[in-house]
Amino acid sequence: MACLRREIREPSVYLRKIIRVIAWVLLASAIVLTVVPAHFRPVTGFPSPIEHFAMFFLIGSAFTLGYSRSDYPFCGAAIAFAGSLELLQLFVPGRHARLSDFVTDALSAVIGIAVSGLINRNNLLPLGPNGSTGV
Predict the structure, then answer these.
(1) What is the Cα–Cα distance from 13 to 31, expressed in whole angstroms?
(2) Angle CA(17)–CA(20)–CA(25) in degrees, nearest 5?
(3) N or C: which end of the chain has fewer CB within 10 A?
(4) Exposure b/e, 94-112, CB count within 10 A at least 16 = b
(5) Mean pLDDT by 10 residues, the chain (135 residues)
């Protein structure tokens, strides 16, 4: 029986670690895309609010799925991160800090955290019992 539990648990440990790497890559990407001049940013063809929503929703989701802790600290960190990125743009030539971008970024990250928190709590992904893997 112990072997069976170990076999079930190991894939969830690896999946959670992969999600953590994705979370940190997304976070680093958001920072880089914020501090580079506007002409170096990739153009997707989508409106800016959609790009912001997608990026921050994914960041919030990845951190919540990668680290199974309470959602509230993640929400606070996401709001602070979104505000910091907007303030950082004040020091980058050709970039502009916008309140609308901050609201979109913070709200989309919190929505991503909430959705992923529900996924964690309802065990909808194979991330271990009750969202914990023992790591």
Answers:
(1) 27
(2) 130
(3) N
(4) ebebeeebbebbbbbbbbb
(5) 50 82 96 86 88 95 86 91 93 86 96 91 65 45
Give the Cβ contact number of residue 135 at 10 Å. Answer: 12
Residue 18, number of CB atoms within 10 A of its CB: 12
Overall pTM > 0.70: yes
Count the alpha carbons within 13 Å of 56 in the hemisphere toward its beta carbon.
29
Structure tokens at 58: 């994914």
| Token reading at 130 | 């009750």
Q: What residue type is 102 in one-letter code?
A: F
Nearest to 102 by CA among 38, 56, 36, 39: 56
Fill in the amino acid letter for 83: G
Phi-psi region of 94 (alpha: psi -120 to 50; beta: other; left: phi over 0): left
